[in-house]
Amino acid sequence: MKTLLLCCLAISTVLSAQGPPPTAEKSPLSHHFIAPTRIVWTAEKGVQHADSLLKPAPGQATLTNPIPPAVLEAGEGSGAIVLDFGTEISGYLELFTPISEGKTPPKARIRFGESVSETMADIDHKGAQNDHALRDQIVSLPWLGKKMVGPSGFRFVRIDATDPKHPVRLSQVRAVLQIRDVPYLGSFKCDDERINRIWKTGAWTVHLNMQDYLWDGIKRDRLVWLGDMHPEVSVIGAVFGHNEVVPESLDLIRDITPPTQWMNGISSYSMWWIILHEDWYRMHGNLDYLREQKDYLQALLPRLAGFVAEDGRETLDGMRFLDWPTFENKTAVHEGLQAMMVMTMESGARLMKLLDDPQTAKVCEDAVAKLRKHVPEKSGRKSPAALCALAGLRDSAEVATALKDGGPKDLSTFYGYYVIRALGEAGETDAALDLISRYWGGMLDFGATTFWEDFDLAWTENAGRIDEPVPPGKKDLHGDFGAHCYIGFRHSFCHGWAGGPTAFLSHHVLGVEAAAPGFAKVRINPRLGELKWAEGTYPTPKGVIKLRHERQADGSIRSDIELPDGIEQVD
After folding, report:
1. pLDDT tens, position by position, 434-453
2. In the β-sheet with 168-170, what is the strand arrangement from edge to edge?
3. Secondary element (H or E) of residue 177
4. Residue 552 belongs to what domain range?
5. What is the pLDDT of residue 93?
6. What is the pLDDT of residue 20?
7. Is the four-CA dihedral 433, 503, 545, 390 of positive or negative sign?
8. In which order are the strands placed within the sheet that holds 557-562?
9. pLDDT number for residue 9
10. Given this model, what pLDDT does residue 15 score?
11. CA 342 → CA 194, 370, 403, distances in Å?
């Protein structure tokens, strides 16, 4: 024993001196443990002591257990349980096992779910899948130990015993949240608690997707999509300020995509890359980082300009895409791409002037002049109409009338961000807040804790909530709807592009706008609509701006503003 102790001490001394291996990389992600909040469902038989899983536990297998372990015994309609962890997370499941008589590893089937009904689904049933992350698998559990399963995006987990000869015994089950542990520097509150919940939910949705890179979804689409990043980056700027996940993600796709190809295979996504760089520079004022993009911009911008016909019509090739609901409508796609080309070329001209390249800036300006000759045919769809208003191709008041028609009808969780922005810029704050409350709030009404890849309020007619088993005679809001790449349970219920209202509320309602790169100057123009008051904080490279706006009896707005040193407020 003495020899063994001396050996352990020697090894410990060597490791302390050496530190981690020279090839080790420190993860930007932290881990937090979450206990289940409730038992949603159990099989009618073969389940004992399920409530033990809701009681405090040490996070360690132990020789004795004062609380009897939960026992799942396999059989027809037996030995299964669904747990709720209270909120959608990205991460893992940990299962702790006690001492048992035999040491043959029992097997358990684990099914992660963003809805309760997804945990009940077999692979290929209503689109249930294991793409990007395994959400359905059978694992062996150790004798007196711990098993980690995942990762995936989930709120609910179903555990089934699968071997009738070897019951599953569990002394503890917990979720492991994997996340960038960064502070919420931005905040928002107003006199409408539903709007407050939406701001927080949008922030949480994007935060969960700030993983190794900035993903679009934590279950499916654990990838970097440039267009999808734009609402996400707008939220990050309003909530977290600078975070390396943004430039690292922008650079990742740049480095794997020659400028002769479209990022993610989609022409508009190369345009979003350009717009994102101007936005990021405006937020943080890092000219050195912008200079790193010069060579790529010098190649990409003239290429884009080559897709402008003499009559001003865009002629982009590749995958022509705005958002999924408009994908098959060629008139709508052209309408939106025309507006995007205007915004991109204008952004490119400004960027190239900053980068001392007047020649490429001139190419962009000439392209804009041609593009403005062509006003595309109206498709009657809200997404491209909003872009046309933001690009100045159509009168904003006229477009706002069309955007208000039908309320939340014809919105998508992605381009809905540009719809509410277009309404805001047209002075229609109340209409924008109404859409936010009814559309994004509609997901909350049915149990959502994050915002979804797509949503249509019509789906909720006679539908059950996502946080309970679907009642007989009700539609399954997760499994029965969706389209394109998100049919049924393949539908992502935590999609970063859906967080746009959070950015809108901070930018538009609190009224914070960078008037010079890096917030050397700020313009504050609150637009409360019918709200009585709104307050919050907004992160900048120079510190956090604090604001409170209150409507006075005469209708005017009184503002109390605290600016960090080094920021000048301008009109």
Report:
1. 999 999 999 999 999 999 99
2. 47-48, 70-72, 168-170
3. strand 172-179
4. 520-570
5. 98
6. 72
7. negative
8. 187-190, 533-540, 543-551, 557-562
9. 45
10. 43
11. 36, 9, 21
The three-class DSSP label of residue 300 is: helix
Query: How does pLDDT run across 207-241, given as a tens digit for each residue?
Result: 999 999 999 999 999 999 999 999 999 999 999 99
Query: Into how many domains does the chain fold?
Result: 4
Q: Kindly state whether residues 135 and 34 are assigned to the same domain.
A: yes
Q: Residue length, the chain?
A: 571
Residue 548 pairs in a beta bridge with: 535, 560
Spatial distance between the Cα atoms of 185 and 470, rounded to a whole number of angstroms: 39
Contact present, 189 and 95 (Cβ < 8 Å):
no
Task: Note whether 419 and 411 are within 8 A (CB).
Answer: yes
Q: For the chain, which ranges sit under pLDDT 70?
A: 1-18
SS3 of 501-515: HHHHHHHHHCCEEEC
SS3 content of the chain, % helix, strand, coil (to 5): 40, 20, 40
Q: What is the CATH number of the domain that holds 455?
A: 1.50.10.10
Does any domain span residue 107?
Answer: yes
Task: From 179, 200, 226, give the residue that closes a domain.
Answer: 179
The full DSSP string for 396-437 is HHHHHHHHHTTTTTT--TTTHHHHHHHHHHTT-HHHHHHHII
Q: How many CA atoms does the CB half-sphere of 24 hold within 13 Å?
A: 7
Answer with the one of 365, 394, 423 that is the final residue of a domain.
394
Any domain includes 373 = yes
Asked whether residue 96 falls in the same domain as residue 212, the answer is no
**In terms of DSSP bridges, do strands 568-570 and 543-551 run parallel, antiparallel, or are they unpaired?**
unpaired
Q: How many CB atoms lie within 10 A of CB 342?
A: 23
Q: Are residues 56 and 158 in the same domain?
A: yes
Residue 11 counted as domain residue: no
Instruction: State the residue for tokens 């050195």.
Output: 288
505 with 525, same domain: the answer is: no
